[in-house]
# Entry
Amino acid sequence: MTGGTRGMGEAIVRRLASEGASVAFTFVNSENRAHQIVEDIKKAGGEAIAIKADGSVSGAVKNAITSAAGTLGKIDILVNNAAAAVAGQLETASDRVEDYDRMVDVNIRSSAEAVRTAQIFMPDGGRIINIGSVGGRRIGGPGMSDYIATKAAISAYTRGLAWDLAPRKITVNSVEPGAIDTDMMPKDTAIREAYINAIPLKRLGKPEEIAAMVNFLAGSEAAYITGSAFTVDGGITA
# Structure
């Protein structure tokens, strides 16, 4: 799994480990947090390894997955969760070229790199789950064009990969979260209230609710589901 030390990523790592999966996940800067998650999982009787890998660097994710496969023996499930988000008005886009390049590298290129590498070590019948965003179908405000374009690409990749990997019975699906209460959610009360007021269920989502959907798609009951996007957003796109 890419990006496993914060918010939804951590929740997914912990949920899959609690279901008996041996989990390998990547991190960039949160080394102490990564080691704590591994320690917690091992104390609970599970198996986990943390690998430092920056998705913006070509080859980093490939090396991380190859290392994980060498340790675990195979890759049954791949979760593409790592993401970078850079907001900004169109008028200032030329000042954010470096951030834009990093976002494209992390959100699109490294996801493709992860799939192309993982499928080498994945037995027939494996699972690939990409974390997208409801922004691919509902923007909600200005300043997010570049980020949302990368998430829309993930949705398109998911559909294409479902065809490519269907002969091996490997399913490929995406989970599209709405406003989830993680450290990426603004702390400003007025902004949070604006988000909540736009959501029919009148609350932010929990990282554990995204993890629950990922866990379902990773399981045997989802064997006939592929090329689909699963929205978990409290009804905001309804």
